[in-house]
Amino acid sequence: MTEGSGGSVRVDAWCWAVRLYKSRSQATAGAKAGHIRINGVRVKASQPVKIGDEVRVTITFPGGAREHVLLVKQLLVKRVGAPLAALAYEDRTPALPPKEQRAAPVFARERGAGRPTKRERRELDQLRGIRGVSRSQAER
Q1: pTM of the model
Q2: Residue whose C-alpha is closest to residue 4's, from 54, 80, 56, 78
Q3: Which carries the bigger pLDDT value, residue 70 or residue 96?
Q4: Up-side HSE of residue 95: CA atoms within 13 Å toward CB?
Q5: What is the DSSP string of the chain?
Q6: How far apart are CA 27 and CA 33, in angstroms?
Q7: pLDDT interval class at 86 (50, 70, 90)
Q8: pLDDT category, 1, cuts 50, 70, 90?
């Protein structure tokens, strides 16, 4: 089978095997960026993970980030199907609040509104906190 016979497995390989990342190189990059923690400590990609360890993985996506809290129950060396991968850990990730209680995006555009004009884009950038050089600033 794909189980480790005891001992440990590299944390990047384990995160890839249980399908937290789509590729092994993404898992390695996540560890280098500090998105993977074992028992509360930031780790390198080669750090071994053992049964009973708590692994916290922060997954970023365009809308924000989500932290997954997993308790290692089984060591996997090779990638397995989703049903088998789910048996390799206990998911302790806190549930998301209901959609009604989540903060609404500040700068949502109506669907089908088309491409924003230059003025609208500058207003959106200002809301997001992105600093661009405006014409009045360039003249100073």
Answers
A1: 0.69
A2: 78
A3: 70
A4: 4
A5: --B--SS-EEHHHHHHHTTSSSSHHHHHHHHHTT-EEETTEE--TT-EE-TT-EEEEEEEETTEEEEEEEEE-S-BSS---HHHHHTTEEE-PPPPPPTTTSPPPTTPPPTT--SPPHHHHHHHHHHHT-----HHHHH-
A6: 10
A7: very high
A8: very low
